[in-house]
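Think of the structure tokens as a kind of shorthand, similar to the way a musician reads notation: each symbol stands for something richer, in this case the local conformation of the backbone. In the example below we present two proteins back to back. Begin with the first one, reading the sequence and then the tokens, and try to describe in your own words what changes along the chain.
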Amino acid sequence: MKKAFINESGVLVAWGHFDTHNDDQGVEVDDDFAMQPGRARLVNGVWQEFDPASAPPTSVTMRQARLALLAAGKLDAVQTAIAGMAGSEGQAARIEWEFAATVDRNSPFVQQLAEALGLDAAALNALFTHAASL
């Protein structure tokens, strides 16, 4: 059985034939699978080749994130969305916003804010790419 192993971002890290009883590790692939580790990723069940140099960053500093949001005209909307979050979820969001040193593209906090602002994956990637350049 041939399996591919991916990291938390869906990027291929290794593949090969594995004779194992632990079926929950790795993704089963066809025998002719030959994508290059580090240059392919699994997105919604479909393998895609990509250039890692062109991939959007997965993490930026909070400074970079806030400057990118300011440049995109979204900083006030983020602050309003965070202020409007209730309960312990709201408290956790305010702690993240005020004290986190970095912002992780795949964190639940960022996903929640992106949804509140109506940002799709492409818009979020563009924000992170711009933030990384600051």
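Once you have a description of the first chain, move to the second and do the same.
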Amino acid sequence: MEVNVLYTNPVIEIDGVKYHHHPNGGGLVAETTYVAPTAYIGPFARVFDNAWVCGDAQVHGNAWVYGTAWVYGTARVSGNARVYGNARVYDDARVCNNARVGDNTLVFGNVLVFGNVLVFGNAQVYGDARVYGNARVYDDALVCDTARVYGDAQVYDDARVYGNAQVYDDARVYGNARVSGTAWVCGTARVSGNARVYGNAQVCDNAQVYGTAWVCGTARVSGNARVY
């Protein structure tokens, strides 16, 4: 769809704030924001509050960027996604579908965050990581490198998931736990405390690894097993 903006003065007032159509894309931009001329704001997108959209960033679809959030570099926010609070989305990151990225989170690199994902608190997702489905990453958690967190999985507290690790299904990784290498945590498994799961290890079913336990190599912890 080709959009030609014919009038860039304020065209609407919402809750006392005036909005104009951004020259590049036609989306609604509040007078309280900063949106660079090089940024693209699609015709149905909205940028408001004190948000910034800079560089060659793009906001498409019905996406919103608001609060004091920044979207910059070549990042894209699309679909019904929301970026808010003091969040930062930059580099070549993608936030799409119904994803929510808020609070003080950082999402950067070549990351994809999509589906019904929530990323909030002080969480960071970066590198080539993927977070999708109904996954949650929050508190001070970190997901990076080429790690995958998906399904209904949650990573929170001060947990780290990195390398080529995968956390999925209804699994939880929390506390100061670390999951790395090509390890898998799946099913309704729990990895917590100061536990480490790495190498080609797998923790699945209803298993729990906690305390200061390490599971590594090609070890598999499954069923209702407890390692601590």
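Compare your description with these statements about the second chain. The chain has a mean pLDDT of 96.
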